[in-house]
Design a protein that fits this description.
The complex is a heterotrimer of chains A (291), B (367) and C (435). Chain A contains eleven helices and two strands. Chain A is mostly helical. Chain A has one domain. The C terminus of chain A is likely disordered. Chain B has a domain of 244 residues: ABC transporter involved in vitamin B12 uptake, BtuC (Orthogonal Bundle). The longest helix of chain B has 27 residues. A two-stranded antiparallel sheet of chain B has the order 1-2. Chain C is of the alpha/beta class and 435 residues long. Chain C has 15 helices and 18 strands. Chain C has a seven-stranded mixed beta sheet with strand order 7-6-8-9-10-14-15, sandwiched between helices. Chain C has a five-stranded parallel beta sheet with strand order 2-1-3-4-5, with helices on both faces. Classes of the chains: A mainly alpha (291), B mainly alpha (367), C alpha/beta (435). Chains in contact: A-B, A-C, B-C.
Chain lengths: 291, 367, 435
């Protein structure tokens, strides 16, 4: 075993972590702020990819502009979803889980009816489908872009939550909805906006995954369980999700390096169950908060 | 007289009527396919019942019921596969095709039909008991527990897929002939298969009903409503949760065995996330707080899938999803709550007509 | 207990000499099917593929091409003088629905034959039912073999036909060192066992073998292993959406197609279109059929199909062509059976038995002449190697000189040879319905 191969695996782990993290970001925000387990998250990721496809294919928008556009489109879908359904279910967490599963069914089948079940294709600039070398390590340009977008989003969320008035309101509502409301914060509006934000983040993830993978109505399914586990292990906080994604991404890459991909996955699942046995509230759960 | 919905005698009469209707079917209908199909729905009914018991009465949302179902199904498939191996030909083809020229230890218990069945039912139940114990002891509950079952389900799915030499991988196990008990062969297309499922469903339902009416059942329902309060009263919450979760797993394992008996086939698809969630959908639409409601939910949804699904093809899932959203949004206790409301309406009407009893506190739902 | 079970088994085996599977409720083989044909009534056949769900991508095309084939057959006078009526059912990508619908088609609709399944898992799900009723399944795609039933006819290439030419061709043109990548399930593993045999004969060297979970889209770890191993080419049996992710990430990770091409058994016209031709160009595929095959029959097939109301997806590929052939294999087999036993007495099993050696000439078969093996009821065909071009079509770079024999047990000679009555073990015993 050479040092270069291990280094390659470590760098790859970072990339896998960024993919899992970007898939889990929207979920974290929605779960962290509103306590909603959003089973439609995978479908929203899928919608992001289809938005990018639609804009590129029918309007001719360049790929890089499709990414923010997907954010806006899916955020609007999330907004409608929250106003039309989720807002009535906030005090019934298990029911939101089920209702959003119904939403996922409708979204996936709706997209299939409109676009057909054959896979779609997102064209990207030639430079994105290449790689470059640093020493003996080969790095794919697109993986760097995913990492960069993820970092940018994390930074953006951090600024939004910790440096703006809106962020203060969100955190206040997270800690105690009634108390926040009594200080004049419109909790319903805060929930609505965080849900839209979370959905929009799923849209960004989708527009990136469409390039890495494939654009299909069912494409979100493979990310959603993984994303959930990241959120649960992280305890619903942003920092928790980041660390959980980083650790599992690296572990997945190293396990796959020493064994094989399937077994690596199994190990991760088992490790997560064992971890939650000892820390059932996740990595950074706020003490005393019960949902 | 209050709402008939909460009247125990009325409930038992409803159950009797339901099973009487199911019992008449094979006498009236001479259609092998329909019998086999209804028997399969009966298996789904068992699954919905197990979800109702665990989620509706125990408050434990389980998105991984496919584990118990799948393990039971694999156990049964292995038993049936070993029945068709002979002395000259002792090793199932899946192993030979994967380069194993001996029977792995994993398969040993299934060489004998009786011990095979015991393992097929015992292992899933044991798994639920151990996993439940670990999770509930750590006070994992609610949505967290649901996600954990999902993770566990994915882990099982992955490992069964990977261990192809022992499990047949994605192709699963296809026992070439029907189940034999002693010298009797249970033909899945005859009324025998139907009756086996019928009695399993009948017994499971009666036992489940008795459990919910017992003091044990009342404590689990109290835990569902407020676990903390029950804990302060000195009950072992995790103990009660583990037991109800294991009973539910045991019923799902029976369903798994019967399912393989009917279709002679098992694959990792039985541990697919979507299938486990559809079990929850059956119970949710039928009414998770009502055992019989959940069973009927399974019959209705699966029947709709088979018949409406063909008529509407690609729009069926759209309907199902939309219907499901509406039920969760407006009828959180499923279609059974319509019956409850309907009977309640009659009760109030007759009340205002006959007497002027004060409308007391709503009785605690025994159903 | 042990003794009585064995005794029971022996009696059942004896009984099964007359009929497919021993059952208390089957008095004779014609009742197994439970219907008789009437001259003048259309022939009902079941068409069972997924039109919704994850498997809809390949299987919708199978349904469409079968409808096209039966229309064509009906226009030309039908089968045995009567039109064919395909009963189309959606299997919803759910294996339990495959099983349920098979029963419905056989028991209620009383179809005479079933055209069904793309994945092996779904085939395994329905075969017990098909065998019990002594019915007939046309399985129209490539698969791993290792089955010997009396109730199935397969028109796709087996693992032993697929890689026979591909491996020597790649070794000759690119070098001896190869890396195997596949999806983690039965067919890739079986195909790789065959490929190893050809590899050894060609003097190649296997550097590594990796399997990816089905549906996985993360190829980073595998590509890193390949990068370390430095093979001359990659032999791929990755399927479905993963295959597209694999080709995309291959290029994104900086692999060069001219230095290390992927030789695949699956990446056909649909896949290259879905990934974008720039990711597919230069790689190789072994298949009996390509849309670009240059012969009059294929031109007629491609033009006719794409212009018809079934050609909405705008492509023909090997899986569709194999499915198309199965309709004609059915026609030929049925007519042979009808000539032998009389139209009214044709049963699914009679069609199967009379399909032995049925030939589809190059006036009908777009891939060139094929015929059904008289023993194992798979298809003799010419595997071809195509290289993907910049526009997503394939250019045939090598075609087998003669039809290659199908051998479902080629890698398990110890288990025996598949004959028309069952698997004949080396000791001479015959076992029926081996799946």
């Amino acid at each position: 075993m050479e040092f270069g191969s291990v280094l390659n695996a470590l760098i790859l782990g970072l990339s896998i972590a960024s993919i899992w993290l970007i898939a889990a970001l929207g979920l974290t925000i929605i779960y962290g702020a509103a306590g909603v387990i959003n089973m439609a998250h995978g479908a929203l990721i899928m919608l992001g990819a289809y938005s990018a496809y639609m804009l590129q294919h029918y309007v001719g928008v360049p790929y890089l502009l499709c990414i923010p556009a997907s954010f806006v489109i899916v955020a609007v879908v999330g907004l409608i979803l929250e106003r039309g359904l989720i807002q009535y279910l906030y005090n019934r967490p298990l029911d939101t889980l089920l209702a959003t599963y119904g939403v996922a069914l409708v979204l996936v089948q709706g997209v299939r009816l409109i676009f057909g079940s054959d896979p779609k294709y997102l064209a990207v600039p030639e430079i994105f489908s290449s790689s470059f070398m640093i020493g003996s390590v080969s790095i794919s340009t697109f993986r760097v872009i995913v990492l960069a977008v993820t970092a940018l989003l994390v930074f953006g969320i951090w600024v939004l939550f910790y440096k703006t008035r809106f962020g203060v309101q969100v955190r206040a509502v997270m800690q105690n909805k009634e108390m926040a409301a009594s200080f004049g914060i419109n909790a319903s509006r805060v929930y609505m906006l965080t849900f839209a934000l979370g959905a929009g983040l799923a849209g960004v993830a989708g527009s990136l995954f469409g390039v890495l993978n494939i654009v299909l109505p069912t494409m979100g399914d493979s990310y959603v369980v993984q994303a959930f586990l990241m959120v649960v292990v992280g305890g619903g906080s942003l920092a928790g999700t980041i660390i959980a994604s980083f650790a599992s991404g690296e572990l997945q890459s190293m396990f796959a390096f020493f064994t094989n991909d399937t077994f690596a996955r199994f190990l991760i699942f088992v490790l997560i169950v064992v971890f939650l046995r000892f820390k059932p509230q996740g990595l950074f759960a706020k003490a005393g908060v019960r949902r | 007289m209050g709402n008939l919905y909460y009247n125990k005698t009325a409930q038992w009469i409803a159950y009797a009527a339901f099973f009487a209707a199911l019992a008449i079917i094979p006498m009236r209908i001479d259609d092998d396919f329909l019998l086999n199909q209804l028997a399969t729905y009966g298996v789904y009914g068992l699954l919905a019942l197990s979800i109702s018991l665990c989620w509706g009465f125990g408050g434990i949302l389980n998105l991984g019921q496919g584990i118990a179902f799948g393990l039971g199904a694999y156990g049964m498939a292995m038993t049936m596969q070993m029945q068709s191996q002979t002395v000259e030909n002792p090793i199932p083809p899946i192993m030979l095709n994967n380069g194993l020229d001996y029977l792995p230890y994993l398969w040993w218990p299934f060489q004998n039909t009786a011990s095979g069945l015991i393992f097929a039912l015992g292992i899933p139940t044991l798994f639920c008991a151990v996993f439940g114990r670990i999770m509930f002891k750590a006070r994992v509950s609610g949505a967290f527990f649901a996600i954990m079952t999902l993770a566990m389900l994915s882990a099982f799915y992955t490992i069964i897929l990977d261990q192809q030499a022992y499990t047949g991988g994605v192709n699963g196990i296809t026992p070439p002939s029907p189940l034999r008990l002693g010298s009797f062969e249970i033909d899945p297309y005859s009324s025998v298969g139907y009756w086996v499922v019928f009695f399993a469903l009948l017994i499971a339902t009666v036992v489940a009903k008795l459990i919910t009416q017992s003091s044990f059942g009342l404590v689990t329902q109290a835990i569902r409503d407020d676990a903390e309060r029950v804990r302060f009263l000195g009950y072992s919450v995790s103990g009660y949760e583990t037991v109800i979760y294991s009973i539910s797993g045991f019923i799902a394992a029976i369903a798994g065995c019967l399912w393989v008996m009917l279709v002679q086939y098992v694959s990792p698809a039985q541990l697919d996330v979507g299938f486990s969630i559809s079990m929850v959908i059956w119970a949710a639409i039928g009414g998770r707080m009502s055992l019989i409601g959940s069973i009927i939910g399974a019959f209705v949804i699966q029947g709709g899938q088979s018949y409406l699904g063909d008529a509407f093809l690609s729009t069926w899932l759209l309907f199902l999803g939309g219907f499901f959203i509406l039920v969760v949004r407006f009828l959180p206790n499923g279609l059974a709550s319509l019956v409850e409301a309907g009977l309640g309406l009659i009760a109030t009407k007759s009340k205002t007509a006959t007497s002027h009893e004060p409308n007391g506190a709503k009785p605690f739902p025994a159903e | 207990m042990e003794f009585s079970r064995r005794k029971l088994l022996k009696t059942s085996l004896a009984a099964s000499a007359a009929i497919g599977m021993p059952h208390l409720w089957i008095p004779g083989s014609s009742e197994a099917w439970g219907a008789t044909l009437k001259k003048g009534e259309p022939l009902k056949v079941g068409v069972l593929f997924s039109l919704t769900g994850a498997l809809a991508v390949p299987e919708e095309d199978s349904t469409l091409v079968l409808q096209y084939a039966f229309d064509e057959i009906n226009k030309a006078g039908g089968v045995g003088g009567v039109p064919v009526e395909p009963i189309i059912v959606d299997a919803k990508s759910d294996f339990s629905v495959y099983s349920e619908k098979t029963k419905e088609l056989m028991l209620r609709e009383k179809v005479i034959a079933l055209f069904a399944c793309y994945t092996s898992a779904s085939r395994k799900a329905i075969l017990p039912t098909v065998m019990q009723r002594d019915h007939l399944l046309y399985y129209p795609t490539c698969y791993e073999g290792a089955e010997c039933t009396q109730n199935a006819i397969c028109t796709g290439p087996l693992a032993n036909q697929h890689s026979k030419d591909l491996i020597p061709y790649m070794v000759e043109n690119f070098g001896k060192k190869v890396f195997f990548v596949g999806s983690n399930y039965v067919w890739p593993k079986e195909s790789n066992k065959n490929a190893k045999i050809w590899l050894e004969k060609a003097g190649g060297e296997l550097l590594g073998e990796e399997y990816i979970p089905l549906g996985s889209s993360e190829f980073g770890p595998v590509l890193n292993k390949i990068r370390d191993a430095k093979p001359n080419f990659i032999f791929s049996t990755v399927v479905g959406a993963s295959d597209i992710a694999f080709h995309k990430q291959f290029k994104q990770e900086g692999f060069k197609v001219d230095q290390m091409p992927i030789a695949s058994l699956t990446t056909g016209e649909i896949e290259t279109r879905a990934m974008g031709p720039e990711f597919g160009a230069g790689h190789f595929l072994s298949a009996p059929y390509f849309q670009s095959l240059d012969n009059p029959t294929n031109q007629k097939f491609v033009e006719g199909f794409l212009k018809s109301k079934y050609g909405k997806n705008g492509v023909t590929h090997y899986n569709m062509e194999e499915t198309y052939l199965s309709a004609y294999v059915f026609k030929a087999g049925f007519e042979k059976a009808a000539a032998a036993v009389g139209f009214e007495n044709v049963t699914p099993r009679a069609i199967r038995d009379h399909s032995a050696g049925v030939r589809i000439g190059d006036d009908i078969s777009p891939e060139g002449e094929v015929w059904i093996d008289e023993n194992n009821f798979n298809t003799w065909l010419k595997p071809k190697i195509g290289q993907c071009q910049g526009d997503g079509t394939f250019k045939v770079v090598k075609s087998a000189d003669a039809q290659v024999a199908p051998d479902p047990f080629s890698i398990y000679p110890d288990l025996g040879v598949c004959t028309k009555d069952g698997l004949k073990a080396p000791d001479g015993k015959i076992r029926k319905s081996v799946i």
